[in-house]
Amino acid sequence: MLVLAIESSCDETSIAIVNENKILSNVISSQFVHSKYGGVVPEIASRAHLRMINEIFHTSLREAETSIEDIEAIAVTNQPGLLGSLIVGANFAKGLSLKYNLPIVPTDHIEGHIYSGFLQDPTLDFPAIAMVVSGGHTAIFQVDSYNHYKTLGLTRDDAAGEAFDKISKLLGLGYPGGPIIDRLAKLGNQTAYNFPRTMYNSNDYDFSFSGLKTSFKYFLEKNFDNNPPKDIIPDLAASVQSAIVDVLIKKVFTAADEYGISNIVIGGGVSANSYLREQSMAKAQKENKKVVFPSLTLSMDNAAMIGFLANKKLAELGEVAFRNLSFTCSANSLRAKYPKKNRVNSTL
Ligand SMILES: Nc1ncnc2c1ncn2[C@@H]1O[C@H](COP(=O)(O)OP(=O)(O)OP(=O)(O)O)[C@@H](O)[C@H]1O
Ligand SMILES: [Mg+2]
């Protein structure tokens, strides 16, 4: 079905037109205004979505060379995220649904990241081990189909993306920190400093990144009075990046081994990290596994992944299942919302 999908859970306003796994447009507007605050300011984010959403809607239709009259369903991210931001997208979606009498598919943002690898590579088979590494979440799932997956592990505190962002802030490098550290790390030596790889050997699939941030903070205080010389910044970036990536790779590949699954998908903003990509690809090749990363555009927050998943739900349940406009939005984090047991997709 020709689905118009809306994503506004954090600081990207995105609208995509997707038919099955064919992306006709995927317009993304990032809110750079937050960089001067060192993190996303929720109220500024909601207002920016409100300002941009109509223009993105028209641009997306134009780029797809289609019109709203041709759209068969609306999809929208309704959780998790910043409530004010989610509500802008949800209300825009409800308005379109009412005006054009279209079914509306409320869709989970993290599920969008989980399945983005399947959008990227239609030859990828179930079952798969999926790892979502983003600004708000770090988690591993066993994925059996488009409507069934099981949570194997979660971060107990900070997400990997948060660690990149906070460490970048401590170094005075700016926000978002992940891409900056990634770029600087290419010029540095990853063995120069040894930062903790918390829970590396914990025999489960949980993560913890808050200790790394704290240890990095004390390291800077103790050794450089919070002012490290410029020439060692690339070494610090490379060392901290390898501490994060080593744990991610260890956990996701161990899960694949334990569950006897050779397909691995890695999604979410941190999956754009070049060292994570290189190391995972090399390990997969060595171990005869298949690892799929979404393209850089599909790894960041984008509406195409939401439209793709909505298409799968529509195919499975039919459009009559999606005529209920009374859905709400939820800020729920993965930790609160996804107990470690079998669970069925949120709308099924
Ligand atoms: N090349 C990179 N290396 C490491 N981290 C990166 C890279 N590019 C982006 N990131 C990180 O990705 C995060 C943003 O990802 P994403 O937009 O998926 O998160 P979010 O949507 O805010 O959170 P969630 O998806 O958990 O709700 C930021 O923390 C950013 O620093
Ligand atoms: Mg995200």
- Strand fraction equals 15-25%
Shape: globular
What is the domain tally?
2
Main sheet specs: 6 strands, mixed
Question: In CATH, what is the class of the largest domain?
Answer: Alpha Beta
| CATH homologous superfamily annotation of the largest domain | ATPase, nucleotide binding domain
Cα Rg: 20 Å
List the helices and strands and how they pair.
Layout: E1 2-7, E2 12-19, E3 22-30, H1 42-63, E4 73-79, H2 83-100, E5 104-108, H3 109-120, E6 128-133, E7 138-145, E8 148-154, H4 160-170, H5 177-185, H6 210-224, H7 233-258, E9 263-267, H8 274-287, E10 290-292, H9 296-299, H10 304-317, H11 334-337, E11 342-344
Parallel strand pairs: 1-4, 4-5, 6-9, 9-10
Antiparallel strand pairs: 1-2, 2-3, 6-7, 7-8, 8-11
Bound molecules: adenosine-5'-triphosphate and magnesium ion.
